[in-house]
Amino acid sequence: MTIVHRAAGERFTLEVTLNGQRRSGQAEPRMLLCDFLRHELQAFGVHVGCEHGVCGACTILVDGIAVRSCTQYAAQADGTDIVTVEGLAQPGALNEVQRAFAKHHALQCGFCTPGILCSVTHFLRETPEPDEQRVREMLSGHICRCTGYASIVAAILEAAATMSKGA
Amino acid sequence: MKPVGFDYYRPQALSEAVALLADKGDEAAILAGGMTLGPMLNLRVARPRLVIDISRIQALKTISVSNNVVITGAGLTQSEALRSDVIAREVPLLAMALPWVGHFQTRNRGTLGGSVAHADPSAEIPLALVACGGTVVLQSRRGGRRIAAKEFFVGALMTQRRPDEIVTALEWPRTRPDAGHAFTEIAQRHGDFAIAAAACSLRLTKSDRVEHLSVGVGGVEDRPIAIDVSGFRGQAAGDIPANLSAHAASSVTPMEDRSASADYRTALTKVLVERAVNAALDMARLQRNRL
Questions:
Q1: ipTM score for this prediction
Q2: A147 in the same domain as A104
Q3: Cβ B105–A5 below 8 Å, yes or no?
Q4: Which of B93, B115, B160, B239 is the right S-S partner for B181, CB 3.0 to 4.6 Å?
Q5: Residue A6 lies in a domain
Q6: Is A76's CB within 8 Å of B35's CB?
């Protein structure tokens, strides 16, 4: 049998690659992946908003794919390669998208920003030259109550243009 | 919120999942992408004793093509389906429905089979499956069975799936080169649950008469429904949109909830069916002229 079984309430050790490093922590079956990343691995850039997949604040990259970490359980992520906002650029540096966000004032309180930056990373890899409509469709999966989105859209479009020119 | 405690099982093979369901199906929830079950667990609307995570069963992630149908594994994510050339070419109606499903981030994890098994009345994938005359494939230790999508959906969140069965695949009839398709919906915001949705597939004769026709409506009744269009086959294409949309609006028994009244859903049925039929006619004419 290759069935993984974790009993309710059972504490078990979970291993993931987090931002390029092998890390492990303790989880139980009902633990949300976002809570595991924050409480066990101190990845505090994972923001927890609605806890039911609507707001987008907890969006991270699992094996390169932008997904919610609140509607996935830690147990499901065993052995996966996870990137959070902390892993998008070298410590102390900004990547192209982050630079454009700063330039265009694409954040105010910053609560939604880590999730958006993770989404954009996957989105621009798949869609290197998006038009505004595509950017807005992608952003529909994130709720920002500060900016009104216009500055976020401008930042993403500029980052995309700079990156595809560089590539 | 955090879910109530549950036993977690992650089988790697379909046979293992089926064996688990045979033993414990009554108290189990099947977890695929978790885009619906996750919120239900977190909000404690669902409190299963165990969760069977099928997200790593590779055999459920395939797309295959036979003579008449495209078979999509139940575990295929909505994003994978949206990127598939085979689906774009052979099942355009599904490809048209998918951009309406949730958001980029939820489609990356949500699955085709999960949406069908969950059976939300307003969900797009079940509507596309009903509208194109597709089939749901189920497996249990007792054997496999296939159920026409029109019969599979029984009511809101209710299907013919038995507790020991798992949805393994969906069968989608392959389109014809001269067919036209359309999918449209109204929601409060893009990506929200549809208040109403309509899907249409049709073909035209050289003399512009409707040869093959199917129309489905979602979000209006407690399950996606196929409109009875038997009286419209053979009619002149120009008469179809107005007549058929009036017929659809008079044949539904709409739900009422906090997002829309029954009257509004009836009005949307008329508008959306007319739009879908018009768009499908445009596409069919374009396709016919290309051949």
A1: 0.96
A2: yes
A3: no
A4: B93
A5: no
A6: no
User: Is A29 among the domain residues?
Assistant: yes
**Interatomic CA distance for residues B27 and B249, integer angstroms:** 40
Residue A77 and residue A24 in one domain: yes
Using a CB-CB cut-off of 8 Å, the residues of chain A touching B193 are none
Say if CB B96 and CB B126 are below 8 A apart.
no
Is residue A84 within 8 A of residue A45, CB to CB? The reply is yes
Interval B149-206: pLDDT, tens: 999 999 999 999 999 999 999 999 999 999 999 999 999 988 888 999 999 999 999 9
* pLDDT single digits (tens) B28-41: 999 999 999 999 99
Name the residue facing B2 among A7, A30, A123 (closest C-beta). A30
Task: Calculate how close chain A gets to B245, using CA atoms only, in Å.
Answer: 29
In this prediction, residues A148-154 reach a mean pLDDT of 97
pTM here is 0.96
Domain harbouring A149, CATH code = 1.10.150.120
A138 SS3 class: helix
Give the mutation candidate from A76, A82, A142, A144 for the B interface (greatest B CB count, under 10 A). A76
Chain B CB contacts of A75 under 8 Å are 8, 10, 53
Identify all chain B residues contacting A51, using CB atoms and an 8 Å cutoff.
Answer: 1-2, 42
Q: Residue A28's domain is classified under what CATH number? A: 3.10.20.30
In angstroms, rounded to a whole number, what is the distance separating the alpha carbons of residues A20 and A26?
19
Provide the 10 A C-beta neighbour count for residue A79. Answer: 10
Answer yes or no: is pLDDT of A167 > 80: no
Same domain, A110 and A48: no
Residues of chain B contacting residue A122, judged by C-beta atoms under 8 Å apart: 108
Confidence of residue A2 (pLDDT cuts 50, 70, 90): confident
Query: By residue range, what is the domain housing residue A17?
Result: 12-87
**Total structural domains within chain A:** 2
For residue B269, the model assigns a pLDDT of 98
Residues facing B135 on adjacent strands = B148, B171
**Packing angle, helices A96-103 and A113-126, rounded to 10:** 130
Chain A residue nearest residue B3, CA to CA: A30
Residue of A48, A65, A71 to mutate, testing the B interface (most B Cβ within 10 Å of its Cβ): A71
Are A62 and A119 in the same domain? Answer: no
Q: Is residue A2 part of a domain?
A: no
